[in-house]
Amino acid sequence: MSKPVKIDDDFRELAPDEVLDGLRHVDFRDASRLVRRAQAMAQDYTGEGRDLLHDAVTRAVVSRTCRKAISLESFLAGIMRSIASTQRRSRERRAEEPPIPLDWLSDHLIDGVLADRPAEEDIETERVRALCIEVIDRLSAQSALQARLIDGIGLDLRGRALAEYAGLSLDDLATARRKLKRHAERLWPDFQKRLSPAIEDE
């Protein structure tokens, strides 16, 4: 049987009911400090301050951990900061990706529209996609924690943002990621054979 998740001494469990009860005492008026902080952080968020705050409240309701002696407003502000900074880093990474070469576009454009790929490529793409979905489903079925970790990775969360999303300390996040990696490595040989059956014929 797996060991229970160990929470660092500086953290404590924050139950959904505790969040819901605390939200009744949070000032959500437009002039409140929390809403003003949301509006300021929204410059890095794909939405308005109220949208960012709503996203943070939604995530906070999910059972997770937080630092001891921290107010709910500070907790929400930390979640908003994490969401906004993650989106900013994601945009920065996309901006660093090289643009599509013009000569490639000229070779694949027909009357201003990208030419369709051959049917064989579409079939192969769908086959590989189905295999990937199957592997992700098998990894997610291992445990609720592992499923949430995979979900967070899919949302492009990293570091503390991923730890908060999964409800873990940073140390426990590292342990969970190693466990996920080992599980994926066990599934890889069978997946590799099905992914590239032609390899066996070489």
3D architecture notes:
By secondary structure, the protein is mostly helical. 64% of the residues lie in helices and 6% in strands. The chain has helices at 16-23, 33-41, 49-61, 72-96, 102-108, 119-140, 144-154, 159-166, 170-195, and strands at residues 11-14, 64-67, 109-110, 113-114. The protein has a two-stranded antiparallel sheet with strand order 1-2. A two-stranded antiparallel sheet has the order 3-4. The longest helix is centred in the last third of the chain and has 26 residues, at 170-195. The radius of gyration is 22 Å and the shape is globular.
Query: Nearest-angstrom radius of gyration?
Result: 22 Å
The fraction of residues assigned to DSSP E strands is: 5-15%
Regions with pLDDT < 50 over 5+ consecutive residues?
Answer: 1-8, 198-202
Q: Helix coverage percent of residues? A: 55-70%
Number of strands: 4
How are strands sequenced across the largest beta sheet?
A: 1-2
The shape, in one word, is globular
Task: State the major sheet.
Answer: 2 strands, antiparallel
Structure classification: mainly alpha
Overall mean pLDDT: 76
Q: How many angstroms does the end-to-end distance come to? A: 42 Å
How are helices and strands ordered from N to C? EHHHEHHEEHHHH
Helix and strand layout, with pairings?
Elements: E1 11-14, H1 16-23, H2 33-41, H3 49-61, E2 64-67, H4 72-96, H5 102-108, E3 109-110, E4 113-114, H6 119-140, H7 144-154, H8 159-166, H9 170-195
Antiparallel strand pairs: 1-2, 3-4
